[in-house]
Amino acid sequence: MSPMSRAATILRIELWHGLLLLVFVLAFRRTKFIDPQALLLGGVFMGLNFFLLGFGILWVLAPLAGKGKVRAGVSLLILKMIIFLATLIILFFQYEIDGLSFALGFSTLILAIFVEAVMHSLKLEP
Fold it and tell me: Percent of the chain at pLDDT above 90?
């Protein structure tokens, strides 16, 4: 798979993710069980994390690995993970965020990846 097709796949997954997140927010906006703001926050958090991870591997990790600098690339990946985990901890301990709603928003990315995999296996291009 070429870097361009990998980038296109990442972008398609992000588009599916955005669409699913919008559908979930609209579907649950009037319920008492799910907080739409926490759902949206969870989805945006995961979408940004996936975007940085996907393109970080394409643009940073792969070129560094090609030059024999795997440690530098892995160190940057670990730094990104630490920053995102720290942000997650701050979000939950500093602000009152509904964990279930956040997790539902977080999980829309998994559903988006599944949809993209099904579309790819059926050779259907959106």
Answer: 42
